[in-house]
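Per your request, structure below.
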C-alpha cells in the first residue's frame, strides 16, 4: 500500500528526496487502495484443482487501476520508504488497512502491521533473513521481472531502507514479545509456511 502511494506521488510529480510532505499527504488522502485476490476456477464457478493456487498473488488496485506490477519497480521501493516516513500518510493508510482487515480479515504483511495497525491480533510473525540472502533473492526477483539491478546496489538500498524504517519516529520497524521470530535465511518457502501454519493450528 505504501508502494501504491509512492507510485501515485511519482505520477503526481513528486520527486525524491521529498520536500513537500503535505502534498504527498494530500495524494494519500485522495487515493483509494483495494486488495484483490486473483481469480481462480472456483471463484469463476469452475471446478477446483491445481490451478486453485494463485500464481500472481494479491492484486493491488489504486483508484480502480491494477498497479501490481508497477509498484514492484526498484524506483518505487525508494518512494515507498520515503512516503512511509510521513506521519500523515501513515495515518491515512493505517485507517485503510484497519478497514480492509475489519471487512475481510486474512493475512497481512507490513513493517508495522503487528505493532501499530493490528497490535492485538492473535498471530504475529516477524519474518526475517540475513541481509545477504535477502539481497540475493531480491536481485533474482528483479531479473525475473525484467528490471535487473546489480547485487551490490540491491544490497545497499535494502540496508538503507532497513536503517531508515528502523529509525523513523513514527511506527518504526520493530517487534514486541508477542511475535514469533521466523528466520528464513537457509530454508525453503515450504518449510517457513509449515512452521507458521503449525503454530497457528496449535493455538486454535
Amino acid at each position: 500500500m505504501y508502494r501504491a502511494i509512492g507510485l501515485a506521488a511519482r505520477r503526481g510529480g513528486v520527486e525524491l528526496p521529498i520536500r513537500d510532505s503535505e502534498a504527498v499527504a494530500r495524494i494519500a488522502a485522495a487515493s483509494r487502495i483495494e486488495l484483490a485476490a486473483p481469480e481462480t476456477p472456483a471463484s469463476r464457478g469452475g471446478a477446483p484443482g491445481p490451478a486453485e493456487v494463485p500464481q500472481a498473488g494479491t492484486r493491488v488496485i489504486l483508484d480502480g487501476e491494477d498497479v501490481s506490477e508497477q509498484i514492484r519497480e526498484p524506483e518505487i521501493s525508494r518512494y515507498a520508504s520515503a512516503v512511509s516516513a510521513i506521519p500523515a500518510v501513515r495515518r491515512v493508510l493505517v485507517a485503510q488497512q484497519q478497514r480492509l482487515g475489519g471487512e475481510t480479515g486474512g493475512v497481512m504483511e507490513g513493517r508495522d502491521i503487528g505493532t501499530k495497525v493490528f497490535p492485538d491480533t492473535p498471530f504475529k510473525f516477524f519474518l526475517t533473513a540475513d541481509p545477504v540472502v535477502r539481497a540475493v533473492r531480491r536481485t533474482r526477483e528483479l531479473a525475473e521481472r525484467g528490471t535487473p539491478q546489480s547485487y551490490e546496489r540491491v544490497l545497499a538500498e535494502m540496508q538503507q531502507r532497513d536503517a531508515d524504517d528502523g529509525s523513523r519516529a513514527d511506527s518504526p520497524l520493530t517487534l514486541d514479545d508477542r511475535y514469533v521470530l521466523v528466520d528464513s535465511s537457509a530454508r525453503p518457502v515450504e518449510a517457513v509456511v509449515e512452521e507458521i501454519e503449525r503454530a497457528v493450528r496449535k493455538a486454535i
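The two ends are 30 Å apart (CA to CA).

Regards,
D.
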